[in-house]
Amino acid sequence: MSHTQTFYDVIRRRGITRRSFMQFCSMTAASMGLAPAMSGRIAHAMETKPRIPVIWFHGNECTCCSESFIRSAHPLVGDVVLSMINLEYDDLIMAAAGHQAEAVAEKVMEEHKGEYVLAVEGDAPLNEDGMYCFVAGKPFAENLRRAAKDAAMVIAWGQCASFGCVQTAKPNPTRGTPVHKVVLDKPVIKVPGCPPIAEVMTGVLSYILTFDRLPELDRQGRPKMFYGQRIHDKCYRRGHFDAGQFVERWDDDGARKGYCLYKMGCKGPTTYNACSTVMWNQGVSFPIGSGHGCLGCSEDGFWDKGSFYDRVTDIHQFGIEDNAETVGAGVAIGVGAAVAVHAAMSVVRRTLDKADEKAERSGQGQG
Amino acid sequence: MSTYDDELRIDPVTGQPAIRTGDEGRINRISVFVFEWPIRLWHWLMVVFLIVLGVTGYFIGSPLPTTTGETGEHYVMGYIRFVHFVTGYFLAISFLFRIYWAIVGNHHAREAFTLPLHKGWWWAGAAHMAAWYFFAVKEPKKWVGHNPLAQISMFIFMLYLLFMIFTGFALYSEGAGAGSWQDQMFGWVIPLFGQSQDVHTWHHLGMWALIVFATLHIYTAVREDIMSRQSMISTMISGERMFKDDRPE
Ligand code: HEM
Ligand code: HEM
Ligand code: SF4
């Protein structure tokens, strides 16, 4: 594989037409929210620029991110992530194994020092010196730090790498730690979601290739173009939300009519992702489209917010699993009861005082 | 038997004469002007705003039963949320106004914002008031402005308002969108709490905190009105603090 090949070279050799290629470019530009003219710029970059060298690591994870991007919408996207980049090392899908594979990683780190992108799926368990995740005879955290040292940037693919996901759910026995807390000296782009949407993954890569820089990130380190809005902001059931038309029970009339899933615990109002616009599996559907609420899988700590089916979710600050409603009502009732007791005591006290006063006054009168 | 005592009393705090004396048998009912009209107006506006915010907020968290019929004919959640947001704006603006008045208003206008923690008499007063609530002393002290315990609770309430305004506008910024002024000013609150869901939870707890505050506040206001040595509720209406006896202290 020559390192100077462009993405365009690669896909043309695979028999993909120029027309398809241009379609892909405009679709990508649209999904990034760029002006139509930008699709030309993307096409130009893909025709002329050498593909980005990438090392793709797998830590503590389930591979659903990789599963996701091989199921993307446009026919070309099918393997775009793989052909767009010069995927030198990916221990999951590369042909080489063992020492051979590790030698490749070493080679890339040397040859493309300061240029390559480190893409990470999964987090790094830090307890017991990282014993819980061993790759190539070393703790994953160690490999991660080593590879990040000479990388241009790090992409945290998916929820595990971005925020930790299920391995880090309480009590997090392995102390799984997301990438940005392990790699402190490099910019980390988070592409959260369990898994992230394939088009979002290609979009991020296309952007980096075209503009030679990181996409604009929000406060939590996610690319704004895909994580700038909540599911709820673009949900097709939003009209039912505004109208107060909710599914109250599974399989009730509202469920059949496709009403809003807010009362069934939909996390769309608090989840930043592109599902309600880009959708999944070649645009077939997304959770809400299939009648189930959003789980909030791209939000920090979504496993630890209590039931997926509660609107008002659990808080842990009180030592017990309880939600804002029960804690609040409990305290309010307690205070109310205390006030009632205090009021009763005040009345008794006042009556006694009055009686005393009276006795005193009549005593004085007699004396 | 004492006669009408029309001597000019000087309010120790404002230094102004408090000349209105009443006639009720043997006692001279001295009254002192405490709360200027903007404070009183603000107080009763707070009552209205917070009831509206509490009720609409509750129904945002736990919506009313599903409406039936054509979707286009209903806008229940839309209206509830709209009222909540508009009232939220009113609350925030009136809070800014209240701070302004704390600066330009009289001495009492500042009480809810500044605790004289370095003053011995203030702590002694707080201890005495606490004892009064525990039925350990027979009589409370007289207070022209807030008593120290009331002052502490007012101070906490101001912080509470700030908390609700910050979390409220942070949630609002999510709808207003990235880059909006709400986002620029309050968006940082969201990662501070973790994520959006956590901000919802804390904002929601705030509703219960309000119910707790109102319960205690109204109870003590009514109780003090009856049992203390000065007027309370009428003071929040007319601004005049009337004392029920003319003993000092
Ligand atoms: C002390 C006053 C307030 C109270 C008691 C209150 C109460 C509530 C409650 C109970 C909720 C539902 C939370 C949930 O379960 O998701 C809520 C949501 C909300 N409140 Fe407030 N709130 C107050 C002030 C404000 C202010 C000042 C604003 C600023 C504009 C504001 C904006 C919001 C927003 C944007 C939401 C989310 C609405 C949604 O998710 O659709 N609130 N409020
Ligand atoms: C949710 C409802 C209410 C809230 C949030 C509220 C809030 C407040 C605040 C912040 C103050 C301090 C005023 C200042 O110094 O600027 C205050 C004082 C006062 N409030 Fe309320 N209030 C509420 C309801 C009521 C009600 C229903 C009453 C009458 C029964 C009442 C009676 C008073 C009185 C008498 C004072 C003066 C206390 C003193 O002089 O120490 N409040 N209230
Ligand atoms: S289904 Fe979920 S995301 Fe859609 S409108 Fe209802 S609450 Fe919002």
List the keywords:
heterodimer; A: 367 residues; alpha/beta; Rossmann fold; Cytochrome-c3 Hydrogenase, Chain A, domain 2; five-stranded parallel beta sheet; two-stranded antiparallel sheet; 11% strand; B: 249 residues; mainly alpha; Fumarate Reductase Cytochrome B subunit; two-stranded antiparallel ribbon; disordered N terminus; binds iron/sulfur cluster
Question: Gist?
Answer:
With 367 residues, chain A is an alpha/beta fold.
Strands of the widest sheet of chain A, in order across it, are 2-1-3-7-9
Tell me, rounded to a whole number, the average pLDDT of chain A: 86
Find the CATH topology of the largest domain in chain A.
Answer: Rossmann fold
In the CATH scheme, the class of the largest domain in chain A would be Alpha Beta
CATH class of chain B equals Mainly Alpha
Instruction: State the major sheet of chain B.
Output: 2 strands, antiparallel
Structure description:
The complex is a heterodimer of chains A (367) and B (249). Chain A is of the alpha/beta class. Chain A is 41% helix and 11% strand. Chain A has a five-stranded parallel beta sheet, with helices on both faces. In chain A, helix 2 crosses helix 3 (38-48) and helix 3 (38-48) crosses helix 9. The relative contact order of chain A is 0.09. Chain B is mostly helical and 249 residues long. Chain B contains eight helices and four strands, in the order βββααααααααβ. Chain B has a two-stranded antiparallel sheet. A two-stranded antiparallel ribbon of chain B has the order 3-4. In chain B, strand 1 and strand 2 form a beta hairpin. The interface between A and B is large, with 54 and 48 residues. Iron/sulfur cluster (SF4) binds at residues 231-232, 235, 237-238, 241, 260-262, 266, 268-269, 288, 293-294 of chain A.
